[in-house]
Model the fold of this input.
Amino acid sequence: MTRKLIPKDPALQGEGNYTAARRHRAATEAFVKAGKVKPAAQAAKPRTTEEARELRDAEEAGREPARR
Done:
């Protein structure tokens, strides 16, 4: 009986890509442990009131139900 080799990162993994999920989880944990969350949050803040308004408007538009 011969054994079939399973690739480490198969293109099709059924219900979800578990390899990508593990990579993402590891990268996220490393980002948090490195203390990069607060600086990233500060860098993402709107710089002007106009930018804040645009972001707020975009968020509201995203929450609206899709039109058919």
